[in-house]
Structures are given as structure tokens and as C-alpha cells.
Queue: 2 jobs
Job 1
Amino acid sequence: MINYPKQISKSDQERLRAAPVLIFLLLVAPSGQEAAERQKQAFSAVLRGADQVPSPLFAAALSDAAEHYEMIRAAFAGRVLDPSVELLVVCGVLKRLPVTSDEVEEYRQGLVFLADAVARAGARRSWFGRRVSRENRELLALLRGMLAA
């Protein structure tokens, strides 16, 4: 397991590790079974590659998310609170983390990379190649906007 910087509180660590799983849950929700399986494989591949991520903060979050995936998923299964609301909380946490702005930006870029990888994996075939669903394109735009704020 990759460790977080020592100055990050346990509650902030919990939020940071939940973000990759929440993004996955948001993107897989509107997908059909076949697309969802491809998206799960892409998500798993990103989690397995945590030790090769250039951002130490994002690497720690991915490693932690892989270890606690079932717990995070179960916490949001059947909840009224949408995962996107929790991601807004994560965005607030990012603004007050006791790390450099470069580290925060690398973490944000990592989340966008993850979202793109999961969305592309769920793309369906069309006459023009693989096409990301309208729902996932809208979710990607929402996520990029949230993370840019």
C-alpha cells in the first residue's frame, strides 16, 4: 500500500480514496451489462497501476481505493445521496489540503484520467468507431467542471 503524506487527516484520506470509486460508480451506472464489465476491467487496470502513477497523492488514493473498494461501494449502494454530491465534498477537501497546489492539480488530473479511461472502456461500437454514450459524455463534462472549480 502506498501511504498518504503524514499531514493529511484520516477523514480527508477517506474522502480522497473514495473519489476514484465514486467516479467509477457514476460512469458505470447508466451503462449496459457488457459496457459495465469493460468499464470495471478498465477501472481495475488503473487501480492495479497505482504504483506507476506520477502523483504520490493520487497513487495513495488509488492504492487505498483498491484495498477498500467493497466497503466504499457498499456505503453508496442504495443511498439517496448521489455520489456526485460526495465528489463535491472531495473538491472542497482538495482546496484545504496541506499539500502544494501542484500535488492537488496532479490528483485532479489523475481523477480526470481515470474518468476518461472508464468512459472510453464503456464506449459502444458505431459506424464511426467506438462512441462514448451521451450519459457518460455528460458525466465527464460534469466531473471536469467540478474538478476544475
Note: DSSP finds six helices and two strands in the chain.
Job 2
Amino acid sequence: MSRRVLLYMMSALLTMGAASQESLEFSVPHGIYNQEFRLWITSPVENADIYYTDDGSDPREKGMRYGGSLGINGTSVIRSAVLTDDSIWSDVTTATYIFPQSLLSQGNSPDGYPKYWGKFCQITGTAIADYEMDPEITGNKTYSPYVTEGITTLPIVSLVTDKDNLFNREADSIKGGIYIFTGCPVGDGTGRGWERPVSFEFIGGEMGHDLTVDCCLKLHGGHGRLPEKNPKHAFRLHFKSAYGPKKLKYPVFGDRAPNRFNALVLRTFFGYSWQHWDNNQRSKAQYARDLWTRETQAKMGDPISTGQYVHLFLNGLYWGMYNMCERISDDFCVQHFGGTDEDWDVTEVDGGAGQYHAAIPTYGNIDAWNQMCDLIYTLPNHSNFMHLIGCGSDGKPNAKYPTLLDIDNFIHYMLINLYGGNTDWDHHNWYAYRNRYWEDEGFRFICWDSENVLVSPTENLTSKNNRGCPTGFLNRLMKQGIFAHRFHEEAQK
């Protein structure tokens, strides 16, 4: 356990009895504002000292003593805590105040932030920091109103943490900044798995979100972590008792998804995005492709990782539009379908090149998956196909043979990726899941990280045949007449 996590656990234990009585009150709630105001911070405890910060840092470590109301006249992040006569700290209270007009003047040299980010992983060099709102847009009388108006059209996610947690240049698992050491999939992977404490606020939007919770922050993704390819990294939020609640209980996606989460992903989109390193991809940039695959799968009647577009702020700096979505895991399966974490097998591909790709169990084990693969690669054997779908050779359900593949789900999944021409698949970017104790339900596939779809109307992937992956399965299954007929039926719908 890291010293940082231990510090937070000790702080939580020390303040369990006191924090509820000593929690601070801010006179103005977090949100979007257009006029300056005075902010009063009060504590119900007499003779207690209030400390605060305005740079994202922890007021228990770097706080200034509060001596009266604070003037708030631009985008601000205020964190505050109480120190009692018994030298016991309260929990930290955090509030972000967004002034849309401030976005127009967000420059490239914010106080205390580095001019350079992480070192390149595949080539020599270091990423030049980019905090600035594009002056060609913000300084344009035609476009600048869209910036200030647009910030109110989506919910806001504000992540607040000490700057060192993001940008410290020490290559240390406890002190190092996760935006400097990004955990690249090539090289030594320094930074992979590092987590840092963060305050997560979810504000506004059509549902009027009003959430503040402490959790931990990690970087997310594969090649999108490479500083030379992508300056705008994706994040993951994990809810752990070492930082705050063990599980988030809040309707992040309204009634479109369960209201309990172990983790959330803030997807930035890498392929065919405006920040992509390749000019050809930038010229075809859209933020709709990945979400199109997920929502299309939902309309076919299959579960998905529900997503929501948001505006992201880091310590009050606008970081861009992201898609916040559910993370696919054993807990995702429990929340959507039931059972316990220990019941679920969640499988993904282990990457690599060539015609054979070994799957690995992200959660659970791979026994049923291997059994399914063995049966698929005996096709067109009729009896084995029947066993694959939980039937005897006579085509009737038979308890002797557990269902290993959800045929309709698999067909839907393949139709989406083939129709969309997904060129960054299926050597990676897929998940499958199954409850090993529900023997009448087979593995289901779920769309994930599908940014490279709907690029070319002539893209044809029907000849792709990666062994042990969805395209390899399809090639074998199409040799079986019953499956081929069912596939054609679904394709016609």
C-alpha cells in the first residue's frame, strides 16, 4: 500500500466521528455563474480554524487560513477543511465555480503548471503542454458566443486534485504525475496503474446533476497514452474506501443504466479525433462513431456501456469534451444482470499480430471460453453446434450441455462491426462476458472502443479471419447451415 493511500485511510479513520459534525458549508453551491459573488465558508464548530486553497491542493497540507468571504469573479476551485482544537482535521469540501466567459481567456501559461508534459515513448522528444483555448475561435466574434453558450449544453465534470498528482516529474509511483508518466503500452510503461486522489464533481445538464464525491483517478487507454500521438488523455474514476465511498450510488445516466458504479471511464476518443497525430484522421474527425456502435447495439436489444457527453475541467482548466461511460467489468455485469462479482467471466483479447489471438480473463476464468472455442472450431459438425447453444443433437435443450454462446447477440455484434467497417478490431477492442452458473446463457459480446467505424463506405471486412477472435468465430459458424440462416435473417431486418 502506498504512503499516499495510507495517509488518506488514516485521515478517514481520524475524522469518521468528527467530519459529520464539522463539515463545512459554502454559501454558494458549485455550478455555472455569470456574475461575481462573495463566498462565505462556515463551520458549525466554534473556535475551529478554517483553511482553504484555490489551486486544487489539499487544504490540510497547503491551506491558507480563512479570514472572511472570498471574491469569486472567474472560474474558480475552492477547497476547504476545518482544524479543531483537538488538532483533528475534517474532510475536505470542494466546490467548482464555472464562469463561461473565463474560457475565452484561458491561456497557455496557467500559474504553477509546467511548459512540458511527458517524454515521448517511441521517438525522441517531450510533449509541449497545451492549456490554451484556441484563440482563432475564442477571439472570433462569430464563434466565441458558441463557446460560452456551449458550455451550458452538457453536464460538467470537474476533477480537482493537487497539481503534483498530475504533473510532478519524479518517476516515482507515489509522487509522480500521471499526466507526465502516462503508462505507455510501449517502453517501460512507467505510470501504468498509478492512482491519485481526486474530487469528482458532476454538475448541471438536462438532469441538473449535483454530485461531489472523493475517489481515485487513473489514466485510461492504450496508444492514446502516447504523448507524441495524443496530448488529450482519457481517465478512469475508481471508487474505493481508501479515498471515499466504496461504490458510487448516483443516477449518473438517469434511468438508462444502473445507479451503482465501481468505476467510470472518461473517454476522450483517439481514433479520428481532432487531436490525433495523423492529419488524415484529423480531417475526418467526429465524436459520434464510438457512441454510434454502442447505441446501435442497444437498439438491437443488447446491453451496452452507457455513455454521456460531458465537458471536463481539471482544476478549473477546461480540458475538452469527453464521453463518460460505464466500465466493462465483473461489477458492470452484477449491476446489469445480477449475481456476484465471483460469478462472472469477462474476457478480452490479448493483442498481438498474426492469425492467432489468445483471449485472457479480465475477470473470472477462461474455462468456459476455451470450451466454446473448441466447439466452434469443430464446425460444421451439427452435434457440436447444438451443444454450443445448450441443446442435444436432436435440437432440444439439454441440461447436459451448458449454453456457451448467445447466438443472436453475437450476430448483432458482428453486423454492427462489419457494417461500420471497424478497422481497429478484432485483434483488440472487444469484450465478452458470461455468468458461469447460469448455464442457459452463453457468452455475449459488447461493443467497445469503436472509433474507427463509418469512415469509408467501401470498407469490407468480411474476409478478416482472426483465430480465437470474433471474425474467426464467424467464419467457422457460417459453415453451419442453421447459424448461416439465422445470420441472414438478422441482416435483413
Note: The longest helix spans residues 3-22.
